[in-house]
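Let's practice the habit of predicting before peeking. Look at the sequence and jot down your guess about where helices and strands might fall. Then scroll down.
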Amino acid sequence: MHYTDLFQLPQRKDIVVTSIWHFALLHAGSLQSPQRKDLVIAGEWDPALLQMLIREHIPESLQLLLSNPLYHNPVWHEFSLMQHIHMVIEAAKRMLLMTGIDVVIPAAFHDLGKLLQFESAVTTGNYQFAGHEDLSVQIAQEYGQDSNVQFLVLYHDIPYQHRTDRIFLKLCKGDVDKLRHLLTMAACDTAGKGWTKAQHTQRPEIATKFQWICEDAGLDPAFTEVIQRACLEW
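Done guessing? Here is the structure:
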């Protein structure tokens, strides 16, 4: 089968996506909102079951992306795709407790588009996954996520692009709360990348960019400190 057909098979789509939600969201306890409860199946979740589902129902080559860091742009990612998404979700839960800003659902969707690119990546040997954001948005749309979630999924990696700091507020059309959510999502993504050699260089640069953006937009210094700490310490 072609791996681009993966999401044409409802049972496999459900296994991949709901497994990610289970893996990191089901045990969120008091952080679960009514919306989030609709996304996960009630009951105890055993992480070992996730691995069993992947082994038994996901094509073998796709398993490399889910579980092997070498197939997930290792210059910038210390972890496999599944581990990275899990860590970004965990960072989002931590952010929610510290700031009251909830980007947990966008965190669950933000990199799923890479699953649809993996066949091409294996063929070309290029594991950059350029354009995965648009595919991730398509998956979020299929799961009924609203425009706010889709926005955060689409632009989660904009800090890594060579853009001026003013582009952030422009993207948010002057909506400061939307900017806070975008910066929070980006900080969580940074935190979930781990500490490769390249990340030791890039993370301080991202933290500095966040400071410029927050100062330019007049955001609360306490918020600025939290998202910078996520880049520099988490």
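How did you do? Residues 3-232 form one domain.
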